[in-house]
Amino acid sequence: MTIPFVDLKAQYHSIKPEIDAAVVRVFESSQFVLGAEVAAFEKEFAAYCGVDSAMGVNSGTSALHLAMLAAGVGPGDEVITVPFTFVATVAAICYTGAKPVLVDINPRSFTMDPEKLEAAITKKTKAIIPVHLYGQCADMDPILEIAKKHGLVVIEDAAQAHGAEYKGRKAGSIGDMGCFSFYPGKNLGAYGEGGMVTTSNPDYTRTIRMLRDWGAEKKYQHVLKGYNYRLEGVQGAILNVKLKYLEKWSNDRLSHAKLYNQLLAGSKVETPEIMDFGKPVFHVYAVRTTERENLMAYLTKEGIQHGIHYPFPVHLLPAHADLGYKPGDFPESEKAANQVLSLPMFPELTDEQIHIVSDAVQAWSKA
Ligand SMILES: *Cc1c(COP(=O)(O)O)cnc(C)c1O
């Protein structure tokens, strides 16, 4: 019996009547792009995150791009982020014409190491993008403090962290803006592409609402050079149904992670650490091992799907070779990229499946 890495079909079947009704509602209203269903979802999502407003866009990448544009980031500026992230974080910086500047991660949390941040700040720095990798918030307080001291905007890459908490604050409400992805496999996933920017700054709200829809304040009154980054009606309606279940799904992910951590104790893999400053939502459950190839072969043989998030830090990807970094520049990110291995993690995962996966890792450890 195969144990899947994620199971989107199981989730659909658990809420099928509501999803189907939402989709039909959009087809009947024929508000296919933005519209009332998207507006309703934006309102709910803003309230959920604890911010004044949320702007639906067509992807998490677009969310990052527009957040930076709203913050005034452009050519000649520098934006600081981490190399141990999905490539989109860095790509979005490049879209604005600004230069990505990278700082290494804390190996315990896999997120930005605030102690390395200040040394990367120059006169050109405009913004900082901490990434809440795997659904665990970066250590935001020291980052916010440094940003304040230097007058920098903080944009959270919360693409993997819907509902995650940091000292009682929800991801997306901690920095100046938060950016979310609703790619199907994310913790809150659309049935297609989608994204969101959250903020409590009315200027950012107004600018992003314009930029996502051709820079228009009113139809055909194009104030800014804008984009076609609108969220579809169907996605808004589906996401609003799914949002009601997010808290339960997040709690399920967290208890799965805790069970894994317990069952994997004493094995050859290092289990992920739950930092004491918040509640992670385990988008990914990543263990570390120096014998990854070997373990992956074993899991494949046992029918246990797995993944690597991510096998290359961004500074070593050919696409971003022009940044001029070299191997050794970010040792913790490089080490993580070589060691992490993601085990099956999704809300519908059963305790029995977690036992099967953990037993396999334990058996491999003793072999
Ligand atoms: C998924 C993801 C993105 C990009 O979101 P898309 O919706 O795929 O464009 C950005 N940053 C991180 C950390 C992600 O995981």
List keywords for this structure.
367 residues; alpha/beta; Aspartate Aminotransferase, domain 2; Aspartate Aminotransferase, domain 1; 2 domains; 7-stranded mixed β-sheet; 3-stranded antiparallel β-sheet; 11 helices; 16 strands; globular; binds pyridoxal-5'-phosphate
Task: Please characterize this protein's 3D structure.
The chain is an alpha/beta fold and 367 residues long. It has two domains: 8-243, 3-Layer(aba) Sandwich (Aspartate Aminotransferase, domain 2), CATH 3.40.640.10; 246-366, Aspartate Aminotransferase, domain 1. The chain is built from eleven helices and 16 strands. The protein has helices at 8-14, 16-29, 36-49, 60-70, 88-95, 140-150, 202-211, 233-263, 292-301, 331-339, 351-366, and strands spanning 53-57, 78-81, 99-102, 105-106, 111-112, 125-128, 153-157, 165-166, 169-170, 177-181, 195-199, 216-218, 221-222, 278-279, 285-288, 340-343. The strands form five sheets. Strands 1-11-10-7-6-2-3 form a seven-stranded mixed sheet, with helices on both faces. The protein has a three-stranded antiparallel sheet with strand order 9-8-14, with no helix packed on it. A two-stranded antiparallel sheet has the order 4-5. A hairpin with a 2-residue loop joins β12 and β13 (221-222). α4 packs across α5 and α8 (233-263) crosses α11. The longest helix has 31 residues, at 233-263. The structure holds pyridoxal-5'-phosphate (PLP).
